[in-house]
Design a protein that fits this description.
heterodimer; A: about 625 residues; alpha+beta; four-stranded antiparallel beta sheet; 20 strands; elongated; B: about 170 residues; mainly alpha; Methane Monooxygenase Hydroxylase, Chain G, domain 1; two-stranded antiparallel sheet
């Protein structure tokens, strides 16, 4: 039966509903500037009416309404936009982390400036040129020494800075993994709280906002996708594998990788397997460390070792002021203590490879004449697969033609004719591991090109092949030790320096060329202190195609290196700008759904206030009615 | 340096300049999409059409010049197959550096335009999808537990648009 008190109850419910609505409006207004907040909306519905059909129902017509209740406080959110933001933020994170490092690498090269490596190189070539004109002047010799010292210092400095950046990227990888785990743990905890709150029929809107904000932060760090199909279990995937499944967390871990200089490798903490990483800051950092910085360090190493080796090659053939010959200009630190090049590559305490950087043939050649022999050269690729690669040559080929074939094959060995027109073979950067940089891996010739014609190998066929995986294999080469260079110590740019003997006595700089006295077939006597021909030959190295695959000069190689990082920087800058545009648009769209509009909230506030006042008036009215009834009985 | 090569340099420089204008238009288009300024997008599209027309004319000129160059230098290739590198390979160092620099600038601006076009396409896609979802939420039929049907009779399950009643 609907009593007089029912009116009081309806009024009370009206007050309660509007009071709650006002609280939500106030909550919205308070969070108007909170970027992580989603606008909330109160849904006021009518309470269950009386009476339900039954035999004992009151004999009153109609189904009587019982006022209002707040059925739900909704959160205004569009998951389409959320998912798009997650996608675009990981792209943004990826390019941002790359861009940060690329800008720093550009700073290392310090181009264009008078203190850059390019200027140091130019100054050194210029000083050799001057020495060739005035070989007897001590000052010219001092200038060569000083310019070479400056170049070496700068080379070491550039290497050090690049290496420091690599270490920094490595540290950031570990830090980022910790951050990912921290966010993932927070999301997992929120999942738990949200599930409990929903289980009792409430809507944990603010907790959901916090969770969405954490998911966005996580997406900047790593490429994630979010599974929302199960309302009880929010899932977060990395490369299709669960990072979070409701209340279960599968963290990542940064473990040291012995195959990659002990740098951190990212794995799933539970299974130690590799996750599939496609975007976000973490992928950007891994790429910066293992690709961009590795390439830059390797290129600087290649520049340093080729610069030192070619200068030494010519310098050793020349004569100092006092008639001394066969001296290095730059220091050469060998990878191994053994002069035979035997080296312990796998660090087990026993030498397991023969590490040879360069070998020059014994015979002088006419590069454009037909070689008159045919056969097949065999190499192995300088990658992890080490597959056999064959290059055929025939009688009509010229030496230069065969050199081109070897260089075009890009097998980690560069061929060229040295200043004495002898064939030289030297190793390049390895594709698999930096530990195998500048090591010739395999040489075999079925015919006489590398054997009788050029004088590099003693014998043809597999028995006469050089294989770096065997110790003491230096004996397969025909030339004496003077024409074979053992592989350099790791990272030659880090120890590049002028040889001590030159530092102590600049008269040992071999500016003069020699002559063959007595027909020994070798330059055995100096042309005298007034000769600057050898200095000129060293100065002319600046025009020699001495770098990668013998197609670029030192300066061209360095310019290409600097312009490559410049292009990478430009691309990263463009991509960031584009991502910012996309994210601005998505944020605007989100704001149109989830943002708090203060005008709208103020209008709502007034409406709810009026509703509240009216409901209060209802209670006073019923109160007066009750008073009337009470007085009737008095 | 032959006349054809000098002309080729001029044409390529003009092409680079027009591509830069196209890039600027594309950039402004992005801002117009975000501001939902349809009139501006229309005007920019017309400008781009005009720029494309001018590019078309320059391209025809470029092909004719390469044709002439191939004939002059007796290059054993079909005109359409001759690359800038082949032409550059036969030049003196100065000219080849200049032409290669123009080639690099052309490639760079084309890459930038391509990337920006991709961004604008995504921008449009995001907006279209957002409004499609919004409109379908407003227009599409939803089921409510109880209510009045179109005939005015109360029913236990009614299907109708969320905000627009279909018959009243």
């Amino acid at each position: 039966m609907n009593s007089t008190f029912m009116g009081l109850e309806i009024g009370k419910r009206g007050i309660q509903s509007h009071q709650q609505a006002l609280h939500v409006t106030g909550h919205n207004i308070s969070n108007a500037e909170n970027k992580e907040y989603s606008r909330q909306r109160v849904v006021i519905t009518s309470a269950e009416p009386i009476y339900a059909p039954a035999l004992n129902r009151a004999n009153t017509p109609g189904s009587m309404g019982q006022g209002s209740v707040v059925s739900v406080v909704e959160r205004m959110r569009d998951h389409f936009i959320d998912d798009r933001i997650v996608t675009e933020k990981d792209v943004m994170g990826y390019w941002k982390s790359k861009n940060d490092f690329i800008r720093q690498i550009e700073g290392v090269y310090n181009e264009p400036s008078d203190l850059s490596l390019r200027s140091r190189l130019d100054q050194l070539w210029q000083s050799w040129q001057e020495l060739s004109k005035f070989p007897q002047e001590r000052s010219a010799r001092e200038v060569v020494k000083e310019k070479a010292v400056n170049l070496s210092n700068d080379m070491r400095h550039v290497y050090r800075q690049l290496y420091d950046l690599q270490l920094d990227a490595n540290r950031k990888i570990q830090y980022t993994v910790n951050q990912i785990n921290m966010y993932a743990r927070d999301i997992r905890d929120l999942n738990e709280r949200i599930l409990k709150t929903e289980a009792v029929g409430d809507k944990p809107n603010d907790l959901m906002d916090r969770r969405d904000a954490l998911i966005e932060k996580l997406s900047t760090l790593v490429d994630i996708s979010v599974g929302r199909s199960d309302k009880d279990e929010l899932m977060v995937y990395i490369g299709g594998e669960n990072l979070i499944q409701g209340e279960v967390l599968r963290p990542l871990e940064a473990v040291m990788d012995p195959d990659n200089k002990g740098y951190f490798k990212v794995v799933w903490a539970t299974t130690k397997t590799d996750p599939t990483l496609r975007g976000g800051e973490l992928t950007g950092l891994l790429e910066v460390r293992d690709k961009i910085l590795r390439d830059n360090i390797n290129d600087i190493n290649a520049l340093a070792i080729n610069m030192m080796d070619l200068t030494n090659e010519v310098h050793r053939d020349g004569f100092g002021k006092t008639g001394k010959t066969n001296e290095n200009f730059f220091k050469h630190i060998m990878i191994s203590d053994s002069v035979e090049g035997n080296h312990d590559l796998n660090n087990d305490g026993v030498a397991d490879v023969t590490a040879i950087f360069k070998v020059s043939g014994t015979n002088k050649l006419d590069g454009s004449a037909a070689i008159g022999v045919s056969g097949t050269l065999v190499f192995i690729t300088n990658d992890q697969y080490e597959q056999r690669a064959e290059i055929d040559y025939n009688a009509n080929d010229t030496t230069l033609g065969v050199i081109k074939k070897i260089n075009d094959a890009r097998l980690g060995v560069v061929a060229y004719l040295n200043h004495n027109n002898q064939l030289a073979l030297k190793a390049t950067i390895a594709k698999d591991t930096d530990r195998k940089n500048f090591m010739i891996r395999y040489l075999e010739d079925s015919g006489q090109f590398l054997v009788g014609l050029t004088g590099i190998l003693k014998n043809a066929g597999p028995q006469g092949s050089f294989d770096y995986r065997r110790v003491d294999d230096i004996r397969k080469f025909l030339p004496d030790r003077e024409h074979i260079t053992v592989a350099p110590q790791y990272n030659p740019a880090s120890w590049m320096a002028v040889d001590d003997s030159i530092m102590y006595d600049v008269d040992k700089i071999a500016a003069a060329q020699g002559k063959d006295v007595g027909g020994t077939g070798d330059f055995n006597t100096t042309n005298g202190p007034g000769d600057g021909t050898n200095a000129l030959r060293i100065a002319n190295l600046r025009h020699k195609h001495a770098m990668v695959d013998a197609k670029t000069t030192f300066n061209e190689f360095y310019n290409a290196l600097v312009s490559r990082i410049g292009t990478q920087g430009e691309e990263a800058g463009d991509r960031i700008k584009n991502q910012e545009t996309l994210l601005t648009n998505l944020m605007n769209l989100r704001e149109s759904v989830s943002g708090v509009n203060l005008d709208e909230e103020m209008a709502q506030m007034v409406a709810f206030q009026h509703g509240y006042n009216a409901a209060a008036r209802m209670i006073s009215t019923f109160d007066r009615m009750l008073e009337t009834i009470i007085k009737m009985g008095a | 340096m032959s006349m054809a090569v000098r002309e080729l340099e001029r044409v390529l420089k003009n092409e680079v300049a027009i591509y830069h204008q196209l890039y600027d238009c594309e950039e402004e288009k992005g801002r117009a999409i975000i501001a939902r300024d349809g009139a501006l997008i229309e005007r920019l599209s017309r400008e781009q059409e005009e720029l494309m027309r001018r590019l078309g004319a320059l391209e025809r000129e470029r092909l004719a010049l390469i044709d002439e160059y191939v004939r002059e230098n007796r290059i054993n290739e079909l005109p359409g197959n001759v690359t800038l590198r082949q032409i550059v390979a036969q030049m003196d160092e100065d000219s080849s550096h200049r032409l290669l620099a123009i080639g690099m600038a052309l490639r760079s601006v084309l890459t930038k335009i391509q990337s920006l076009q991709e961004t604008n396409r995504t921008l449009l896609d995001d907006n279209i999808r957002f409004f499609s979802i919004l409109l379908s939420t407003l227009k599409d039929t939803v089921s409510v537990k109880t209510g009045y049907s179109g005939s005015g009779v109360e029913e236990s399950r009614v299907s109708q648009s969320l905000i627009f009643n279909r018959r009243f």
